[in-house]
Amino acid sequence: MSSEPAALSAKQGRGLYRALVLRKQLILAGLALALLLSLCIDLALGPARYSLDQVVLALVSPGSVPLQVRVVLWDIRLPIALMAVVVGAALSVAGAQMQTILNNPLASPFTLGISAAASFGAALALAFGVALIPAAIEYIVPLNAFVVAMLTALVIHLLSLKRGVTVETIVLLGIALVFTFNALLSLVQYLSSEQALAAVVFWTMGSLTKATWPKLIITSLILLATLPIFVRRAWALTALRLGEDKAASFGVKVARLRLETMMMVSLLAAIPVAFVGTIGFIGLVGPHIARMLIGEDQRFFLPASALSGALILSASSVASKSLIPGTIFPIGIVTSLIGIPFFISLILSNVRRSW
Amino acid sequence: MVTIRLDGLGAFHGARLVLSDVSTPIFRGGEVVAVIGPNAAGKSTLFKRIAGLLKGPGRVCLEGAAKGPDGICYMPQDTAANAVLTVYESILLARKQGSAWSVSDGDLALIDGILAALSISDLAFRNVGELSGGQRQVVSIAQTLAREPEILLMDEPTSALDLHRQVEVLSFMRGLARKQGIAVLIAIHDLNQALRFADKCIVIAKGRMIACGTPEDVVTPALLRDVYRVEARIERCSRGIGHVMVDGVAAETAATASIAA
């Protein structure tokens, strides 16, 4: 079947592939730089505004800036700004892997009800002190969120394996789960004391202002623990997007990979929700931007999803401070306002089968 | 030389035994074996069982395979994918499963060679989601070849190809089998292509093996009547290759009823 012109152009294939890889690496570097810039702006903004020079100096050499600047940046703003980065990355990676294993572009922790499930689990702890797994009091909220989120993820996973279940069915199921958990959350709110109600309501709006160094460290550790596992499985995860049969024919243990990934995804989605409340659409928008920029080779798609999710949430944090000077909006409101039009455009493009 | 023999092979779908008692003589590297049979006969099931994707009774006896069971590569039937991946990346993906992240010049040279051999270098940087059914099928062949198979199981690899491409692909596969000592099993509906390109032929119907032998011995008017329920003759062309000439649909007979049961 070979022909001379084809053989000639094949020699260019190698070079073109290397150029494609270089382009992807440059995009990743660009995203990382944009994230760094956004992080610095996020740190500079607040009731007291600092210049970017001051921020960089305070980060690089804390001893050389006034005590007040150092305290504001290191003790107040840095945990919040870094939490935006880590939570954005975690939710985006969770969304990317949900879309991969369910082969569904509309999947994300928020649209499939996993965030709502985590909210309900956390609200049980916040309102009534219910612990689904016995644990120290400070860990009840994240553990509850994780347990309910994981059970929900398992339900979605098991239903997605049924014959005849389509992309649309899974999305509709997710909507049903969102409604169910929202109703249950309302019930918890109705039954809870005034003080607990305020905590639950504020927390469901999603806000980074409660970020602390320990919460940041736990969320970071979960991200750092799961990312290398995804990284090691990059080829297998990418193969899933060619279809289950094709992936299995490549030697991928599809059922096991899906189950293990779903468990890690529920952890990645639940813990940020437990700490900062419901932050919607990052898990949907982040991976789609990454996919448009870099494609779906997970060696690049995974870091690109993490970086774009982190960038969106960090930029949203900047926006939440900038919209009305002196007021910090709950960040969940900002991400929803950005995410909903994006979600609608995805549904419409899904109808046209152009994704 | 690699050899493969099936010994009482069966397969389960869930708890149901959907394929049973498939025993064959030895197939050797360099041979092309056509697996024929009507729709839903169990051809894909047989391939998945050989590839270890389904469980079931019996044994796949493999000898002389340098990579052991990993040398068995299965190419599933064509399915559309909407992944944002280039053809080049999708072939690399097939090659790199279970390997490290890094991509060597050797990997890329192999892919370049496969693309050139299958005359699809022009598709290399198109997205897999943009391909036609026929293009997808050739890319699928390229993905399978990138895994450097010793036993190759191809499930209807030419179903979406035009006649020219069918002859081109099947000739290429036969040449590759001879040159590289690969045993190629091809599930195929076109009996004339099976007669033309295969060295051996297995007939599967209703989850059982009905016949096994050379295509000329196996593809007979009686088989066409009993398994495919058509009245047909086999005529030889000037090069001695058999050709199925269908006269019409056959009436139900005791033999067709027994196979159907």
From TrEMBL, chain A:
It is found in: Cell membrane. Keywords: Cell membrane, Membrane, Transmembrane, Transmembrane helix, Transport. The keyword Glycosyltransferase does not apply. It is a multi-pass membrane protein. Pfam families: FecCD (PF01032). The chain crosses the membrane at residues 26-45, 76-98, 110-133, 139-159, 171-192, 212-231, 263-285, 300-320, 327-348. The keyword Transferase does not apply. Belongs to the binding-protein-dependent transport system permease family. FecCD subfamily. This is Iron complex transport system permease protein. It comes from Mesorhizobium ventifaucium.
From TrEMBL, chain B:
CDD domains: ABC_Iron-Siderophores_B12_Hemin. Keywords: ATP-binding, Ion transport, Nucleotide-binding, Transport, Zinc, Zinc transport. InterPro entries: AAA+_ATPase (IPR003593), ABC_transporter-like_ATP-bd (IPR003439), ABC_transporter-like_CS (IPR017871), Metal_Ion_Import_ABC (IPR050153), P-loop_NTPase (IPR027417). Residues 4-231 form the ABC transporter domain. Belongs to the ABC transporter superfamily. PANTHER family: IRON ABC TRANSPORTER, ATP-BINDING PROTEIN, METAL TRANSPORT SYSTEM ATP-BINDING PROTEIN TM_0124-RELATED. This is Ferrichrome ABC transporter. It comes from Mesorhizobium ventifaucium. The lineage of its organism: Bacteria, Pseudomonadati, Pseudomonadota, Alphaproteobacteria, Hyphomicrobiales.
